[in-house]
TrEMBL record:
Pfam families: Aminotran_3 (PF00202). Belongs to the class-III pyridoxal-phosphate-dependent aminotransferase family. One of its GO terms (molecular function) is identical protein binding. Its cofactor is pyridoxal 5'-phosphate. The keyword Nucleus does not apply. SUPFAM superfamilies: PLP-dependent transferases. CDD domains: OAT_like (cd00610). Keywords: Aminotransferase, Pyridoxal phosphate, Transferase. Coiled coil: none annotated. This is Aspartate aminotransferase family protein.
């Protein structure tokens, strides 16, 4: 049986990894500055992460949500402490798309409305409602397009106000740093005014922190750079350091009812063990401090390279924008300099999403290779 061919692949086969490095079947070492789409938060094969999963699977890997799982309660308490999101409630699932799907469903339940406002170049996942609010027509099938969605420009607060005042919008969903779209951000004033308008119009404010969360922006969540209070926060990618886990943090004003959300695999014992180890390492190893230190160092060097037209993003969710498409540059970096980087729907942006354990020496290695590649 052949694989369903939906991924354009680089001709590299990783077989092992350690911290910020990946090794292929030939033993070639690659510097990972992409982290598998920002998934690797605490470094590949972190010993505390490996021990947590190994220990848990030896005892109990899975049972359904029909029974008590104290690890879920422990993860919720730990997440509240590390994130600062006091009194929010946690619902666990398996991925970012599933997190956003449940966030949108919950907003519709709460408000008894069905239309959603999202934004140009936004990406929220590939499940039914999540892909409908994603600004990419090529991945939206007709069955998804039945959803009631209005896509607006970032920073166009008057359009947001006009649409919300129509009274049929259940949710506004937004990335505080766009990932796939190319690291664009709205202004502080825009984010904060949207929050106010949502609260005035019985509309839930959904913060998509799937990629920008878990310390990647320099704060635990990217929305924490602003004076806003999301009603629902979606999380995934860095949450499990590679183990599939996602979830939503739900404001205490939203009441749970039996059966309104559900999942078979979400919040399983192995996922919770992985999630707890990630939070412990982020806290114990001061990784958010490291994010800020390395980010400042990255910006300082990037500003000296004339071919870079714009430096985008925050923390270690970064983009370098050029005046040419970067596909060939990415190939050169991976095949000639053994460095993984990422692309975006903005074809001129090179995405940098390393493990939060990355050090200055790795940034030096990247910029030395980038300058040589650009000169070549």
């Amino acid at each position: 049986m052949s694989l369903f061919n939906v991924y354009p692949l680089y001709n590299i086969t990783p077989v092992s990894a350690k911290d910020v490095y990946v090794y292929d079947e030939k033993g070639i070492e690659y510097l990972d500055l992409y982290g598998g789409h920002a998934v690797i938060s605490i470094g590949h094969a972190h010993p505390k992460y490996v021990e947590a999963i190994t220990s848990q699977v030896a005892k109990l890997g899975f049972y359904s949500n029909a029974i008590r799982n104290p690890l879920q309660e422990e993860l919720a308490d730990r997440l509240e402490a590390v994130s600062g999101c006091k009194d929010y409630q946690l619902f666990l699932c398996n991925s970012g798309a599933e997190a956003n799907e449940n966030a949108l469903k919950l907003a519709s339940f709460k408000t008894e409305k069905s239309r959603v406002i999202a934004f140009k170049n936004g990406f929220h996942g590939r499940t039914s409602a999540a892909v409908a609010v994603t600004d990419s027509k090529s991945i939206i099938a007709p069955i998804n397009a039945q959803q009631k969605v209005t896509i607006l420009d970032l920073n166009d607060i008057e359009s947001v106000k006009t649409e919300l005042e129509k009274g049929d919008v259940c949710a506004v969903i937004i990335e505080f740093i766009q990932g796939v779209g190319g690291l664009d951000q709205a202004t502080k004033e825009f984010f904060e005014q949207v929050d106010v308008l949502c609260k005035a119009n019985n509309t839930l404010f959904l913060a998509d922190e799937v990629q920008s969360g878990y310390g990647r922006s320099g704060k635990f969540f990217a929305f924490q750079h602003y004076n806003v209070t999301p009603d629902i926060i979606s999380i995934a990618k860095g949450m499990g350091n590679g183990f599939p886990i996602g979830g939503i943090l739900i404001h205490p004003s939203i009441e749970a009812k039996f059966g309104m959300l559900g999942t078979t695999f979400g919040g399983n014992h192995l996922a919770c063990a992985a999630g707890l180890s990630v939070l412990n390492v982020i806290h114990d190893d001061f990784l958010m401090d490291n994010v800020q230190t390395i980010s400042e160092y990255f910006f300082k060097i990037a500003e000296t390279i004339p071919q870079i037209k714009k430096i985008k993003g925050k923390g270690l969710m970064l983009g370098l924008e050029f005046d040419f498409e970067v596909s060939d540059l990415r190939k050169k970096l991976i095949y000639e300099y053994q460095i993984f980087t990422g692309g975006a729907s903005n074809k001129k942006v090179l995405r940098i999403l390393p493990p939060l354990t990355v050090q200055k020496k790795h940034i030096n290695q990247f910029f030395e290779a980038l300058v040589n590649a650009l000169d070549a």
